[in-house]
Amino acid sequence: MSYMSARPAGDAATASIMVLDAARCWRAARDSGASVQPRLTAVLRDHACEMLAPCFDSVMAICESALGRQLRVGEGESTSEDEHLLLGLIDGSKRRRACLECRDSIASALDCALCSLRIMMGMALASSGRTH
Fold first, then answer.
1. How far apart, in Å, are the Cα atoms of 35 and each of 11, 54, 111?
2. Which of 14-28, 38-52, 64-78, 99-113 bottoms out in mean pLDDT, i.e. has the lowest?
3. What average pLDDT score do residues 78-106 get?
4. Using 50, 70 and 90 to split pLDDT, how confident is the model at 130?
5. CA-CA distance, 39 to 106, in Å (whole number)?
6. What pLDDT, on a 0 to 100 scale, did the predictor assign at position 129?
7. Is residue 15 scored above 60 in pLDDT?
């Protein structure tokens, strides 16, 4: 069983907020030409998960490659389709093969990056006391 499906609903909401915060931070940093990982680290520190900055950076960059365009993010409480896709890919409710058609090399890299992020999120949330 994956870590994401084993967490209580409250923790799922916390993880979703963290993913959206990271995605929006990543997009803003990329658009402004700023260094992405230091910005992600600062945002993820608010969730006691700053160790996830490289994982999120990889997932977002590879996801963009798989989409063949820039990842679109929402504002405030408005969530974009890309953010819904990202949340589903990370929590396992959406399968990459069903959602994204891309070259095998990009697909393989995305699958590995998603798996790594799930594992690292489980470890980070457990060490911060946010899982059961």
1. 29, 12, 25
2. 99-113
3. 88
4. low
5. 25
6. 65
7. yes
Instruction: pLDDT band for 111, please (50, 70, 90 cuts).
Output: very high
Plot region of 76 (φ>0 → left; ψ -120 to 50 → alpha; else → beta)? left
**Distance from the first to the final alpha carbon of the chain:** 15
DSSP string, the chain: --HHHHS-HHHHHHHHHHHHHHHHHHHHHHHHT--HHHHHHHHHHTTT-GGGHHHHHHHHHHHHHHHTSPPP--BTTB--HHHHHHHHHHHTSS-HHHH----HHHHHHHHHHHHHHHHHHHHHHHHTT---
Are the CB atoms for 93 and 86 separated by under 8 Å?
no
Residue type, 51: M
Q: Cα separation of 40 and 7, whole Å?
A: 24
What is the C-alpha to C-alpha distance for residues 76 and 55, in angstroms, rounded to an integer?
24
Cα→Cα distances 27→80, 108, 124, Å: 13, 23, 22
